[in-house]
Amino acid sequence: MNRDLTVGEPQKVLWRFCLPLFGSIIFQQLYNIADSFVVGKFVGENALAAVGNSYEITLIFIAFAFGCNIGCSVIVSRLFGEKEFGEMKTAVHTSLIATGVLCGVLMLFGLFGCGWLLRLINTPSEVFADSMLYLDIYVWGLPFLFFYNVCTGIFSALGDSRTPFLFLAVSSLANIGADILFVQAFGMEVAGVAWATFLCQGVSCVLALVFVLRRLAQIKLEKRASLFSWSLFRRIAVIAVPSILQQSFISVGNIVLQGVINGFGPGVMAGYSAAVKLNNLVITSLTTLGNGISNYTSQNIGAGKLYRVKQGFRSGVKIVWMICVPFVLLYLAAGRYLVYLFMKDITGTAIDTGVQFLRIVSPFYFVISVKLVADGILRGSGLMGRFMAATFTDLILRVVLAIVLSVPLGTAGIWSAWPLGWVLGMALSVYFYRRGPWREEQI
Q: Is 0.85 surpassed by the pTM of this model?
C-alpha cells in the first residue's frame, strides 16, 4: 500500500513508516549474523575470522547498492509528493537500468580485484583461502543485492515499508536454515554459508521486482512513461553519487581498520568479527531509520510543507533513542554471552576482544543515532555537500585515531576511536541541519 507521508501527526506517521523498516533491517542483518554464527559454532575460529575479514570487503559493494537505493528513493519520493506519477515511473525505470550497468562493472572488479584487496589488508595465510572463496561466491550474487536494494528504495518512496519487511523476514529465516543445512549436513563450511546467502537473496530479489512492477502497473497514466531519462538520471545521481562516496569511504576506512586489527592475529580478528556484527546490527538499523526520515523529508519538501521537517527531526530523535536503550543495556549487561553465540569457547582472546569492543562503543549509540537522523534530513532535502562533510570528518577522525591509539593502547585504542569520531560527526550534522531552509518555519 502506498502511503502519503505529508499528512498526519509526524511522530505517528514516522512510527508507522519506520517500524517495518527497522524490522526489515533486523532480518537483513540476520544474513550476516547467521553466516558468522554457523561458521563460528560449527567450523571454527579461523572460519569465523575469514567470514569477518571478507565482510569488510563486501561492504564496498553494499555501499554502491545503498547509493542506488537512496538515490532512487529520494527522487521517487519527491515526485510522489509532487503527484508527478509519469515522471515517477520513468525515474524507477531509469534507476533499474543504471543499476544494472553499475552492477556489471562491479562484478568484473570483484572477480578480478578481491584477491588484491585481501592481500592489501594483510589477511593472514591461515584464513586467506576461505576469505577468497567466500568473496568469489558473493560477487556472483551482486545482481540480487543491487536490484533488491533499488526495489526496497522504491517501496519506501511510496510510503510502503511493510512489503520489503515481509520479504526479508521470510528469506532471512530461510537463510539461517540453509546455512545450517549446507554447513552441517553437506559439510561445505565457508562455501556453504556463502551459497545459502546467494540463494536466499536471489529469491527476495525476484519477489521484490515482481511486486514493484505490479505496484507501478496499478498507477494508471494517460501517456506511457519513458523507459529512460537523462535529466532524471542526473537528479538521481546527484543524490546517489555522494551517498555511494560516503558509504564507500566508510568501507575503505573499515578496510584500513581491518588491516590494523589483522596485525593482532586471528583471535582478535574473530572477536572483532563477532562484535562488529552485533554493532552493525544497531548502526545499520539506525541508518535505515535515517533513510526513512529521508523519504519523509523528501515527500514533505515536494509537497511544500517545510515546517514538517523540523517536527520530523524531533520525532525521529525520540524514535531512535527508544530503540537505542534496549541495545545499550543488552550489550553492556550480556555482551560476553552474545559474543559467545559465535564461538565454541566462552574464554580466550576472541571473547575478551568482542566484550571490550561492545563495552567501549555501545554507550555512544545515543550520539550516533542523532547524527543519522540529521543526516537523513540533509540527504532527503538534497543538501549532499553538508551531509558528506559531516560524514567524512567523522570517518577520517576515526581511522586516524584508531591507527595512532593502537600503538600505546592496543585494541582498546582502536575501539575508542569510534566514540570520538561519532561525537564530532554528530555535532557537525546537527549544526548543518539547524542551518537548513526550514529553520525559519513555524511549527
A: no
